[in-house]
């Protein structure tokens, strides 16, 4: 998702600065890291039931939703802010097929302000959020549960287990699609840093945009799981015993 929006403030096509090209390349790799990290975090949190059963499970899931929503709307803000600040003129480049922000090297203050903004808001803050959240996720993954939880083989448990597995598979597909489409994009931008011009078709831009749409729905996957877990927790013990008893009787009849 980030690559599409970061093309505006950090595009190298109208810049004469080599550093700006390197900055754009780093921003592209930052986008790739964030896309993969978000997808992996979603897969782990959706697929691992332990987070919902421990003391910090609900709070961790709430924090996950907040972080994902922030990373979801963040690129929109990075596009709106430099344009509203009038740092340059927004033009349409016929060669690149993108709407880019023209930063003139004749105005050093404008150029320095733009580079600082792009490096801090385009690379520094997103990578810091991703790093902190990844370390927190690794801590929860390596932490052993305080007590062992066993699940009965009731029809209701099987239903929730199938739903969790399906959500995990969907998130995994999103991660593979994002990674497969954005890696060539990152390689192309890296080669352009050294002055090699590789044309990218509009179709490829469209494919990247479609892949980025998958990351948009990750917060909704969390919300769907949280709602389902609340439904599951409201199921009383007598009802679960009745379900388990019915399932046992059906097994005996068959």
Automatic annotation (TrEMBL):
Task: Output the InterPro entries linked to this UniProt entry.
Answer: GPCR_Rhodpsn, GPCR_Rhodpsn_7TM
- Give residue ranges for domain G-protein coupled receptors family 1 profile: 1-222
- Supply one GO CC term from the record: neuron projection
- GO MF terms held by the record: G protein-coupled receptor activity; peptide binding
**UniProt keyword annotations, A-Z:** Cell membrane, G-protein coupled receptor, Membrane, Receptor, Transducer, Transmembrane, Transmembrane helix
One Pfam entry name: 7tm_1
Topological category with respect to the lipid bilayer: Multi-pass membrane protein
Q: Which domain of life is it from?
A: Eukaryota
Q: Which residues cross the membrane?
A: 21-44, 65-85, 114-139, 202-223
Asked if the record carries the keyword Chloroplast, the reply is no
Could you tell me where this protein is found in the cell? Cell membrane
What name does the UniProt record give this protein?
A: G-protein coupled receptors family 1 profile domain-containing protein
- Organism for this UniProt entry: Trichoplax adhaerens
């Amino acid at each position: 998702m980030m690559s599409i929006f970061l093309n505006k403030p950090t595009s190298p096509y109208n810049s004469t600065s080599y550093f700006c090209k390197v900055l754009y390349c780093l921003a592209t790799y930052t986008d790739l890291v964030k896309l993969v990290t978000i997808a992996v975090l979603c897969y782990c949190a959706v697929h691992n039931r332990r987070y919902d059963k421990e003391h910090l499970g609900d709070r961790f899931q709430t924090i996950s939703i907040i972080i994902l929503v922030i990373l979801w709307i963040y690129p929109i803000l990075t596009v709106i802010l430099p344009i509203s600040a009038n740092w340059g003129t927004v033009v349409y480049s016929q060669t690149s097929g993108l709407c880019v922000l023209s930063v003139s090297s004749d105005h050093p203050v404008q150029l320095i302000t733009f580079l600082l903004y792009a490096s801090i808001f385009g690379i520094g803050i997103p990578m810091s959020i991703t790093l902190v959240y990844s370390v927190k996720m690794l801590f929860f993954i390596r932490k052993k549960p305080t007590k062992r939880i066993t699940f009965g083989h009731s029809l209701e448990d099987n239903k929730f287990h199938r739903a969790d597995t399906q959500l995990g598979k969907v998130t995994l597909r999103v991660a593979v699609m994002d990674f497969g489409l954005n890696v060539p994009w990152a390689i192309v931008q890296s080669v352009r840093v050294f002055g090699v011009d590789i044309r990218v078709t509009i179709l490829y831009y469209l494919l990247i945009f479609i892949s980025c749409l998958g990351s948009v729905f990750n917060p909704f996957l969390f919300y769907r799981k949280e709602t389902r877990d609340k439904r599951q927790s409201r199921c009383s013990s007598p009802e679960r015993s009745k379900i388990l008893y019915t399932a046992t009787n059906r097994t005996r009849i068959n």
